[in-house]
Every structure is written in structure tokens, then in C-alpha cells.
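TL;DR need C-alpha cells for one chain.
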Amino acid sequence: MTSMRRAASTALADLLRSAGFARAYTLAALSFAFLTTAIHRINDTVTLATIVAGLAAIGIGILALRRDELSFVGFAPTTLVLYAAWALASLAWSLDGTHGRTLSAWLSLFGWAVVAVTIAHIRDTLQIARAMGDVLRWLLTASLAIEVLMGIVIDAPLEGLGIRGALAYGGPVQGLFGSRNLLGFVAVLALVTFAIEWRARAVARHVAIYSIVLAGALTVLSGSPVAFVLVVMLLLAEFALSIARRTPRDRRRRVHIAIAIVAAIGFLAAFVLRHQIIHFFAARSGFAARADLWNALIEWVRPRPVNGWGFFGTWEGEPFPTNIINRQLGWPNDSALSSYFDVLLQLGWVGFLLFAAFSVLALVRAWLAAADRRSVVYAWLPLTLIVLLVVSVFESYTLTDLGWMLLVVCAVRAGQERSWRTRIDPAAPIPPPSARPQGPRGSAG
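>> reply
TL;DR here they are.
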């Protein structure tokens, strides 16, 4: 009996360490992350929490079995650890009766972070991009099929998934993602991923063309103004990155500084002209509601500017003070409609600065790696991060679930490419700028 248990334990360990299981785990985790809204609508938070807990437990097992392959350098960004620690510390100042909510929200944050760290360590950038491409191809295809079924064939809404069945009228459509803004966000992420797949020759040409057309069509049909902003910012970022990549190495530092200065000027101009920008978008979309929400939210930041009201994640169940904010506005909100405002409300300026430092450092590292490496695959990291950070202005996606997991994956991968801690452990297995197989569906899987 002992020998059988030992053999079974060895077989299980070999399975968890295998490349095939790593790919299956990545596909499963990404699929569940993109379907969190659908899972929540069809079932409940208990089902979703069970899935996340199971994925995190498996991830911890994988990391434990691969501990000899891991290094202190690049395991997880310091800013990520500090942000998670501050969110947990908010238990100390959250209001009486809300400690359970804070703990459950933090466990979800921690669980998705464990899943993301696991994926970032067991798959390289090309493998992650390919897995995400495979998942998004199926989900967007299924979304379009369901919209055709409900919007044209049956011509009736599907309330369970939040599908309005408006495809015959030109949209907006929601697909499997519950809202047009979330579908637009996912479709833009898909555009980035599919374009990288095509340029890296990771998929056959006809698959790449179908994927890009599908993502582009759903971006338009979503009718999301947020998606429009994301596409514009992506085009600008791709233009700047292409300039940096083509610049000789001895002059690249000056180009990076120039790009950073232009980006800073653009940010300052947007801040100075924020009222005109809000008025412009308010006249063409529901942006005025966001402005009213943010103004009301700022009033609740002032009593606790440093530490916030305690971490509670989404606004589901209307924890204090979101219940008061919603009553003041006269309509329900599921979030602050901005990750930055949400972090400011929940974790104060300390949490906001930690979140900003974590995000900006990840983007800088990913940008520098993409500019220095020959393979176009490395461009996936900064472009994906730009989508995540820009959408964070208008939605709170990067605070929980899908957006948070993708943010951590990109940050850990970027940290593995460039980290100050290489000075501490120069022998760490940081991925070299090697050329990976780039044939259609090559051996990198």
C-alpha cells in the first residue's frame, strides 16, 4: 500500500510539473477569468470563489514542486507585495461589521494573484499570449454566435447573461461578458493579442485574419466609447514603441526620455483640460454619470485620505460608504467606474501610490524589454499593460478578477525581464533575449 501511494504521489508530482499540465492550467485559468461575469450571473459568488480557491491551491502546488526552478529575483514585484499587504492591513481600520467583507475581498485578490504568479512562472511571454489568443478566439466566437442567435434568429433578450439581443439594430452587443464596455475591453485585448500572434507567426495566416476581423467587428458592435479611447491610445503607443525599437541602441535612451516627456505633457494637458474633456464625452455618452460619481466619491475620501475605508473590492452588496454614495446619486453603481478612484476610496493615498507604483514600474520594465528585444512577442506586455492602465481610468476592472489577474501576470513577466534585484542575485534564471520558435503553432506550446 505504501509503494502504491508513493507511486501515485510521484505520478501526481510529475503531472503537475509537466509542460502539458502547465498549458492546460493556463488555458483553464484564463477561461475562468474572462468568464467571471457570466459565472457570477448564472451561479453566485460561492461558485466563483470555489473556482479561484481551487486554481490558487493547484498553483501553490505547482510552484512548490518547481521551487528549484524559481529565484528570489523576479518572483513577484516588491510593489505587488506591498500593495497586497496594505490591503490586508486595512482590516485594522475597516468599520465594525465589515471585517468579513474585507477578508473575503482580500482572499479573492490574493487568490487571483497566486494564479497570475503561477502562470507567469510556468509559461513564457509567447506561450501566455498564445494561450490568451486561443481562449479569446473561442469566447469571442461564442459571443458573436449567441448574439446572432438571440438578436436575429430568436430576436429576444437573454437576461441570464445580460444579452439584450440588439444585434439586428446594430448593437450595442454584450456577448458573454455582460456589458458593452467589458466586451469592448476584451475585444481590444484580443486585437493586441491576435496582432502579436500574426506578427510573430504563432498561428496560421487564415486563423490570424479571422481572429483580427472578429475582434475588430465586436469592438465596433459593442458601441463602447471606452473601447474607442483604448484603440486610439494603442495606436499611439504602438507608433511610439516602433520608433523606440528601430532606434539604434546607443540613442535609444534619449528616445525613451522623449517619449516619457511627451506622455507626461499629454497627461498634464488632460488633467488641466479635464472639465472640457468631461463635457465633450458627456455630450456624446453616459460619461456625465461618471463625473457625478467621482465628485461624490471624492467627498468620502477627505475624511480618511491616508488609509481609506478598508478594502472591499466590488461594490456588490453596497458596503459602507458605497451605499450612501449610491443613495446620494439616486442610481446603483457596481464600482467607482475607475480603478484609481476605487483604490483611493478603499485604501487611501497610500494604497493609491502603491497601486500606481506597481502599475507604472510594470509598464516601464515591459516597455524597455520590448524596445531592447528583437522578437515582436515582447511588445505584447507593454501594449496589454497600456490597455489595462487606460481602461482603469474609466472602469474598475484591474481591481478584481480578470483585470487584476492580467495586471499581475504582465507585471511579473516584466519584472523577470528587468529587475533591480538582479544585482542581488545575478545568477538568477532571468529569461535571455533568445529567439523562440516562430513557425505557425510552433513547439513553444
